[in-house]
C-alpha cells in the first residue's frame, strides 16, 4: 500500500477493560479473526495480567500462605487492627527507658510478674505496599506466548513479595520492642558463612518468647538467600526453610540485618477494601506513553510493639507500661 492510501477496514470488533469498564474499538483491514489477533494485542495482554494478579493476590490461598509464613489477619474495611494479649507465665525482668517517679527517683529496670498480660499496640502508621508495571504497546505488538506471560507474571509477583517484606523490615527497625545485636561480618566460603548464620540465629534466639526456631518468623536480606540455598542443597534439603527449621522470608532494599520475631506475640494485619479484597488492582490506559499501567497495592499494619505493666522499684501499687524486647535484629557488621 502506498503512503496516504488507506484501505477501508473490513473487520471491526470491540473489547472491554474489566477494571474500568472502558471499551476499545479495534479496526483491521485484513480477514484475520479477532481470536487470532490476540497474540499481538496489548489490551488482551494487559487484561490477562490483570486477571492473573487479581486471581492470585485476592484468593483464599494467598491468605492461607501468608498466615503460614507469619501470623496474619485480614480485617474488614474500616476496622482497627486486633491487639493480641498474651499472659506471661513466668517472672520477667524488663529494661526500659529511664523516667522520673512521683518522688523524683530515676528508675531503669522493673519486673513483670507472672500473669501479667502482654498487649500489642497498634502502629502509628501503616505500610503501603505498591508496585506498578508499564505494558508498552510496541513491546507486545511483536507477539507473545502463554509461557512468556507466565514468566512475566512470576517475576512481578516475586518482586512484589520482596518489596513487601522489605517494607515490613523497614517498619520493624526502630520500634520499641526491637533490640539490636552486632555480630560482625561473615567470612570464609559460602558453606562456612551459612553455618555461621545458623549458629548466630541459634545463639540469639530468645527462648522466653519461643522454645524453638519453629515458633519464630525469620526475615533475612536477599543477599543471604543464595548462601543459605547452597547450604540446603549440600545438606540434601529442598530449600532454606528446611535448613533453618522455620519459614524464612527474604526481603529486598537496604540490608537491615536478620529479624527474629516470635509468632505468638507479633502479627501482620492486612486491611480489606470496600469490595472485600486485600489487594487493590488497577489497570489504566496511559495514552501519552502508549501503554497500559498495571498497579497493585495493599496496606498492612505491623503489630510488633509488645507492652506490659511493670512494677517500679518493687512497689505493689506503682506501675508503668514498658515495651518488651520481643524482636531481635541481628546486624552482620561491627558495632558502630
Textual characterization of the structure:
The chain is of the alpha+beta class and 336 residues long. It has one domain (11-331). It has 7 helices and 18 strands. Strands 4, 5, 6, 7, 16 and 17 form a 6-stranded antiparallel sheet that branches. Strands 3, 8, 13, 14 and 15 form a 5-stranded mixed sheet that branches. A 5-stranded mixed sheet has the order 9-18-12-10-11. A hairpin with a 6-residue loop joins strand 16 (305-312) and strand 17 (319-323). Helix 5 (190-203) crosses helix 6 (225-234). Residues 7-16, 27-34 and 100-104 have low confidence and may be disordered.
TL;DR of this structure?
The protein has 336 residues and is α+β, with helices and mostly antiparallel strands. The chain is 26% helix and 34% strand.
Amino acid at each position: 500500500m502506498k503512503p496516504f492510501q488507506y484501505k477501508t477496514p473490513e473487520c471491526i470488533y470491540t473489547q472491554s477493560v474489566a477494571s474500568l469498564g472502558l471499551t476499545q474499538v479495534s479496526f483491521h483491514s485484513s480477514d484475520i479473526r479477532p481470536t487470532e489477533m490476540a497474540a499481538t494485542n496489548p489490551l488482551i495482554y494487559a487484561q490477562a495480567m490483570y486477571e492473573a494478579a487479581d486471581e492470585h493476590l485476592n484468593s483464599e490461598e494467598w491468605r492461607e500462605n501468608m498466615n503460614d509464613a507469619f501470623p496474619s489477619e485480614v480485617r474488614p474495611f474500616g476496622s482497627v487492627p486486633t491487639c493480641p494479649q498474651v499472659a506471661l507465665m513466668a517472672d520477667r525482668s524488663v529494661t526500659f527507658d529511664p523516667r522520673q517517679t512521683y518522688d523524683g527517683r530515676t528508675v531503669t529496670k522493673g519486673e513483670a510478674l507472672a500473669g501479667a498480660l502482654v498487649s500489642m499496640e497498634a502502629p502509628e502508621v501503616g505500610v503501603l505496599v505498591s508496585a506498578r508495571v508499564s505494558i508498552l504497546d510496541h513491546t507486545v505488538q511483536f507477539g507473545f506466548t502463554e509461557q512468556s506471560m507466565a514468566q512475566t507474571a512470576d517475576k512481578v509477583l516475586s518482586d512484589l513479595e520482596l518489596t513487601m517484606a522489605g517494607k515490613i523490615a523497614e517498619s520493624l527497625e526502630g520500634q520499641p520492642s526491637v533490640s539490636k545485636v552486632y555480630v560482625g561480618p561473615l567470612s570464609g566460603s559460602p558453606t562456612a558463612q551459612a553455618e555461621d548464620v545458623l549458629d548466630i540465629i541459634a545463639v540469639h534466639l530468645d527462648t522466653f518468647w519461643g522454645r524453638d526456631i519453629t515458633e519464630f518468623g525469620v526475615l533475612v536480606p536477599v543477599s543471604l538467600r543464595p548462601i543459605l540455598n547452597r547450604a540446603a542443597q549440600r545438606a540434601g534439603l529442598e530449600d532454606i526453610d528446611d535448613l533453618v527449621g522455620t519459614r524464612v522470608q527474604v526481603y529486598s532494599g537496604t540490608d537491615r540485618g536478620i529479624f527474629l520475631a516470635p509468632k505468638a506475640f507479633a502479627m501482620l494485619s492486612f486491611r480489606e477494601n470496600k469490595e472485600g479484597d486485600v489487594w487493590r488492582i488497577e489497570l489504566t490506559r496511559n495514552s501519552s506513553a502508549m501503554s497500559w499501567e498495571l498497579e497493585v497495592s495493599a496496606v498492612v499494619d505491623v503489630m510488633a510493639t509488645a507492652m506490659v505493666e511493670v512494677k517500679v522499684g518493687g512497689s505493689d501499687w506503682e506501675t508503668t507500661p514498658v515495651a518488651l524486647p520481643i524482636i531481635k535484629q541481628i546486624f552482620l557488621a561491627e558495632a558502630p
